[in-house]
Amino acid sequence: VAASHYVFFENSSSNPYLIRRIEELNKTASGNVEAKVVCFYRRRDISHSLIQLADKHAKELEEEKETPTEIELTEKQKHQLRHRELFLSRQYESLPATHIRGKCSVALLNETESVLSYLDKDDTFFYSLVYDPTQKTLLADKGEIRVGPRFQADVPEMLQEGEPDDRDQTKLEEKLWDPECPLTNKQIDQFLVVARAVGTFARALDCSSSVRQPSLHMSAAAASRDITLFHAMDTLHRLNYDLSSALSVLVPAGGPVLCRDEMEEWSASEAAMFEEALEKYGKDFNDIRQDFLPWKSLTSIIEYYYMWKTTDRYVQQKRLKAAEAESKLKQVYIPTYNKPNPNQISVTNGKMATVNGAGPGAYHAAGGGRACESCYTMQSAQWYSWGPPNMQCRLCVSCWMYWKKYGGLKMPSRLLPRSNHMMPMRNSGSPKSSMKTKQAFLLKVSRLTKMARHMCRDIIKLRRAARRPFVPVNCGAVKAECKSAFNFSYASSHPTFMSQCVATVFLTCVHASMDSHVYVHVGEPSTVEVSARVRAAALADGWRSAGLSWTLPQQDRHCTHSLNVCVCSRHVEGVGGSGGPSAQAPSRPEEHPDQCGAVLR
What we know:
Layout: E1 6-9, E2 18-27, E3 33-42, H1 48-64, H2 75-82, E4 85-96, E5 100-108, H3 116-120, E6 124-132, E7 137-140, H4 185-205, H5 207-212, H6 216-223, H7 226-238, H8 243-250, H9 262-265, H10 268-281, H11 285-291, H12 298-308, H13 312-327, E8 344-347, H14 360-367, E9 382-386, E10 393-396, H15 397-406, H16 447-455, H17 462-467, H18 475-486, H19 488-493, H20 495-502, E11 508-509, E12 515-520, E13 528-533, E14 537-538, E15 544-549, E16 564-569, E17 596-599
Parallel strand pairs: 4-6, 5-6
Antiparallel strand pairs: 1-2, 1-5, 2-3, 3-4, 6-7, 8-9, 9-10, 11-12, 12-13, 14-15, 15-16, 16-17
Helix pairs in contact: 4-6, 4-7, 10-11
């Protein structure tokens, strides 16, 4: 078994199995394996009033459907279907892995599938409600597609050119920045620099800030956070982009304005308490505020959480958790359990028994003429005692396994009162209870586009472009700059040069010394010799980086262009003397996939 598997646990020799979902497997100090599991409850484990409430809720959902359709089930099928219904809980517990007796399957109730499919599959269960054993409540565990006037706005018709807008502007959103403002990008950047400088000066005057940021570097870093930039740009917009008025607002008569966000407001002890609470409760911010930080508002805690996720402490904790998860047990082998059950009352060496553990008079008197309390059979290879001892009831092998797995008998018994605590059977989908499929997408950017962001910084500035989202970017100038940088005159005569330069270039470093010659095979018709001084720097993951310059052959000197790249090499072979190269790189990366590589930056 492994994590996320649904399994049977045995905590009593006479009671049905517990159904649990394994969250993680842990090895104790004594060498035993324990499983942290999520609890599921059967109908027999929940109070009669809650079962009635669940059935009433299901009946109301069935009545809301436009075309309700119910499957005609026999009394036996309805009785057995009750045994397949479970209730999920948020309760966790740790159980010994040696108590696992097998695997099962648990799924959210699928209303588009026939309910008979749950009876046709062995060890299959379903659930639709969540049970809270502490509060004794039931909640639905499925989302809804909220369609209709209760959940969606009525989109008005688009206004024609010149048509007045009669809507109440006070009820609409508020504009925070005008892309068509009269200020130039240079003026805006200069004002933001002044705002950061004012923030640094304000922290120098503030006593509490001097304690939290004792160095000028830390104060300047705190003043450069988004809260300062937001305040500066909001001030510009509020004063109609008048620079002189905005500057006077930044430094009023009482002293410079000090802007702080939640990351700066919280003390070190509060940050430590927050991390402890997050470890205990997860992202349950209400419980975090109630038990750990009652003096903080819920808004403050949530804002701090998303800022905390950008810090190095979060990255370190994430790495530690990943390493801890890697060291945990992934799966464990559970051998077949063959020990005899204490409720076993008769062994017949594999032969069919015609009496139920005693003489004919005994089983007729105890069972009312029935040998097995469930299926009424009078022959079985093994019998098990079941129910109150004074009733002397017994089950055959098949019914005993059914009782252990499903928590009931195949047929209703006089000891199990008949109950209608079962949700109405249905097989047609309901738009109110269907889960909306989330569409995922991936934006894959080419390497050339990534390089263009760095090579064309003089042409396109991302921050300035974001301030004026309606002004198109001059793509022609970007392409021209890239062409100039990559020297397309050489690429026109060597078609494979550009394709392999933009992609990852694989090479072999033939010397481990600081001075080395490197050969790079970039195409069938041509080979480019690269002569460079390799500046190897050992990185944390064992790779080496170096700066290189491309040098084209003598016959192509008219189009020589220097291109800086970053070479990453995991294996640097010290082969040959210092006079020249002794090896040549492979022409295809798949020949030596783990040898080395050069990535354009």
